[in-house]
Amino acid sequence: MSDAKQSVTGDTTDRTGEQPLLEVDGLTKHFPNDEGFLSWLQFRPDDSDGPVEIGREWVRAVEDVSFKIYEGETLGLVGESGCGKSTLARTILRLVEPTDGSVYFKGNDLAAMDSGTLRQQRRDVQMIFQDPQSSLDPRMKVGKIVEEPMQAHGMYDEEGRAARTHELLEKVGLDPQHYNRYPHAFSGGQRQRINLARALSVNPDFIVCDEPVSALDVSIQAQVLNTMNELQDEFNLTYLFIAHDLSVIRHISDRVAVMYLGQLVELAEKAELFENPQHPYTRALLESIPVPDPRVEGTRGVLEGDVPSPIQPPSGCRFRTRCPELIAPEKYDLTDEEWANIRQFTRSVKRHRFEATGANVIRAEFFGSTLPGGDAGRTVSRAIDLLVEDEWDEATELLNESFTEPSICAREEPSYEVPTEHGGGRHFAACHLHREEEQTH
Ligand code: SF4
Questions:
Q1: Percent residues over pLDDT 90 in the chain
Q2: pLDDT at 31 over 90
Q3: Ligand 1: which residue has its CA nearest to atom 3?
Q4: Tell me, what DSSP letter sits at residue 243?
Q5: Pairwise CA distance, residues 36 & 120, whole Å
Q6: For the sheet containing 100-105, what is the strand order?
Q7: What is the mean pLDDT of residues 126-131?
Q8: pTM of the prediction?
Q9: Would you kindly state where each structural domain of the chain is located, as residue ranges?
Q10: Which residues contact 415 (CB under 8 A, 6 or more apart)?
Q11: Which of 8, 73, 197, 398 could bridge across to 168 with cysteines, CB 3.0–4.6 Å?
């Protein structure tokens, strides 16, 4: 990771100088892609030393992620399913081992701790999972479920644990009289409250909440989120709150980090991120929030295409294969309209979105009466000829080589700090659209 990136992503608050409760620095997690059993094993030709590992594929689930969380705040982490949010959470807690990077909790590196010290530290760092049903043992009564972590850490005697459990059940909005009930007797929202009580039982400082309300009805979500807010104030808790739903993130967060294909692409205070989003991916996510108007169907602009494979992520900016704002290569002298037409044409060819009935029809559909001038126009013209000859792959390759690969978006990994309009914090955006306006810091 470059120093510049580290300094930009590391801290977007105005609490610089204060020691963060948690600092994630260059955290990386790669998994071997073992879908094909032994597919990565190859044998030496002379068979002298047995098999060797050649050409093994790696799933780059989390790549070089850095941020800080300060005591008492909630950092919301949002992104589409499969973007690496849960893996990041598990790597922070060392439920899976990091490939690289550090995680400092109160100044101590969790990633470098031996298992005994880590076990002690786990008391201060708890996690709540998405599915409240599967994280509660159906054969155990609720009281014992909440008491279990206290027992594991040798906290209180039996009577003390029972008293604390009764108190916690009440704090999370449950009836303490239900101490002897089994989990199946509770609704989804109530089960998530049991999980909360269980996490709180060991008096943690920091809770990682992995999609804790996603499985709940919308009306119940707000109630559980309100309880979490109240508990945060009462117990001085710090949350890393993961969700794919921006309305949930908006409800609970102080700052928001947006993740795409294993990397953070934007990080800012909540008001700044929602009112002044600076990354095309964040803008697309915001535009995908359902509109609360019965006359408008579904969602506004939806992201095009799928998240690419994390085995071979795109070079430069990982969002470039779906970005509607890809930057034109410097070598072409194009107007904004000409470049917008080329981008639209390139995307439509790549996704085989139209019938190539004739060169004039294609030209008119994407470029109106005139093609762009110079090399760009000649390339477009050649691509149209290829389409008419039904050579879609060649046309895609030509457009890719001529317009996408020479773009700064494909050549360099972006990392910028941009001016803020709301609040006193800082604003990180991983997008080259900001390459000329970066704040000096
Ligand atoms: S760097 Fe380029 S491809 Fe990436 S988000 Fe910005 S404009 Fe889009």
A1: 75
A2: yes
A3: 320
A4: E
A5: 38
A6: 58-69, 22-32, 100-105, 108-109
A7: 87
A8: 0.89
A9: 3-33+58-124+204-284, 336-406
A10: 2, 4, 5, 8, 9, 428, 430
A11: 197
Residue 264 pLDDT > 90? yes
β-strand partners of 69: 22
Closest of 351, 419, 33, 79 to residue 241, by C-alpha: 79
The residue whose CA has the least distance to atom 7 of ligand 1 is 326
CA of 413 to the centre of ligand 1 (A): 9
Name the average pLDDT for the chain: 88
Choose the residue to mutate in 432, 434, 436, 437 for probing ligand 1, maximizing ligand atoms within 8 Å of C-beta. 432
**Amino acid found at 285:** L
Ligand 1 pocket, 320 CB below 6 A? yes
The one-letter amino acid at 8: V
CATH code of domain 3-33+58-124+204-284? 3.40.50.300
Question: Number of C-alpha atoms within 13 angstroms, CB side, residue 150?
Answer: 22
**Quick one: tokens of 47?**
């068979």
Determine if residue 354 is left, alpha or beta; phi over 0 gives left, psi from -120 to 50 gives alpha, anything else beta: beta
Name the residue at shortest CA distance from atom 1 of ligand 1: 431
Residue 122's pLDDT is 84
